[in-house]
Amino acid sequence: YTKYLTDPTIKDAENSARNNSLGLWGVAFFFEGKYQRSAVLIGLAVWMQALVGLQLALVLGLVLVVELVQNWDHPRFKALQSFSIVFLGVSSVALIPLLSSQLQNVSPPPGYDGPSLFYIIGAFRNPHHYLFHSFPVRSLIAFGSLFFLGVIGLSWRKPEAVSSQAYSRCRLLVFIIATIGIGAYIGTESIPILFIAKLQLFKTTVLAKVLLLLAVVTWIYGQFPQPFQWINSTFLAATQRHLTLVGILWVLLAGSLLLQIQPIFQKARPLARMGSSELEFYSWVRGNTSPNDIFITPPSWSGFRSQAERPVFANFKAFPYRDDLIFQWYERLLLIAPLPPPVRALPSLQSELDEAYARQSLSALQTHLSLYDAAFIVRAEAAADIPDSMTLVYRNAYGAIYQLHSTTGRP
Q1: Best label site of 280, 287, 310, 401, fewest CB within 10 Å?
Q2: How open is the CA angle 46-4-334, to the nearest 5 degrees?
Q3: Longest dimension (CA), the chain
Q4: Residues 74-127: pLDDT tens digits?
Q5: How far, rounded to the nearest angstrom, does the alpha carbon of residue 184 sit from its chain's CA centroid?
Q6: Integer Cα distance of 186 and 181 in angstroms
Q7: Strand order of the sheet with strand 390-395?
């Protein structure tokens, strides 16, 4: 959903932007009563990010259920039926294999003496995704303020331009998401349940944020004197002006990239890396090593796989999301970056892992990893002592690469 997935006030969207676009389009169709179109788009969102589609389908489906219970009639039943069948049909391509892998009862591997899956997933890797008390206080205050203002907006007299059904559905959605949030809190902080944690139900606050912002803006707009409300009819409702505005934004973006205006140019990572030591580093790896060679890298180097096109031994961000592999991921990570497991990880955990990795001597890494057939060790800074079993094969300002003589580097 957002950079910090459960952070309801973060401003920049990253990996799930495409899913949110489909999801938001599906929500718009839902409010228009076009339930099959809504279900198709939300089902497609499941293909790319399952939780986006599943959570939207959950809250929108609950709206239809509540409306049906309040006033049972054939059109409402047909709406719920068509939405459910179309969503399940479209999403099943991704949903069936996902559920089959997630619902398996997996036991720790033989000899494992580490923490539980709930700790690894929730408290160690991403507590700010799963656990309420790990959310930034600033974000909680900001969202609480938005919630307060949004409730005021929804409690105010309905604007004439908004349909009664849309207004009541907006209220119902906020109530449903608040109820889900309470359930998520109980299922993670009070009574830790792995299945509840995996659902990351606090993500539904992203939809609540959109609805609450709409409520606040609608309420503020309604307070303007009538002469100022011409904005809606003369600009906001004009499709041609929308397209013109989008065109202007694209021109500004393209000009910023061509002129290398910061920080926009820096965000365009492929362009910003041109001629850099980072680009030279990964170019050397691709041209001088085998695609099967296994690399041991600092835990936070999340882009190594994609940029070097080589496998890595362990990486903090590259999480397997499969129970039987999560135990192995945890053991491997602490093998190359040994540190005492925190009760609940802080945002500084990645840098702490990198520091622990840097403290490991090359000899220690080789001793630990000889059974895994790793071929190369990567350090952000060159090591002071190089054992006889290794050779420094490449070094620049970005990092240093050491090759192990006694391994084949094959998986």
Answers
A1: 287
A2: 95
A3: 82
A4: 999 999 999 999 999 999 999 898 888 777 777 888 888 889 999 999 999 989
A5: 18
A6: 9
A7: 295-296, 376-379, 400-404, 390-395
For residues 49 and 16, give the distance between their C-alpha atoms in angstroms, rounded to a whole number: 7
Query: Which two structure tokens, joined as six digits, stand for 50?
Result: 């399952």
Cα-trace Rg, the chain: 26
pLDDT for the residue numbered 173: 94
Q: Is the pLDDT of residue 270 over 70?
A: no
- Report the distance separating Cα 60 and Cα 207, nearest Å: 11
| pLDDT over threshold 60, residue 392 | yes
b/e sequence 127-152, b meaning 16+ C-beta within 10 Å: bbbbbbebbeeebeebbeebbebbbe
What is the structure's pLDDT at 227? 57
Q: Going by DSSP bridges, is the β-strand pair 376-379/390-395 parallel, antiparallel, or unpaired? A: unpaired
Work out the angle at residue 186's Cα, subtended by the Cα atoms of residues 181 and 192, and round it to the nearest 5 degrees: 125
Residue type, 396: N
276-291 pLDDT tens trace? 888 899 999 999 999 9
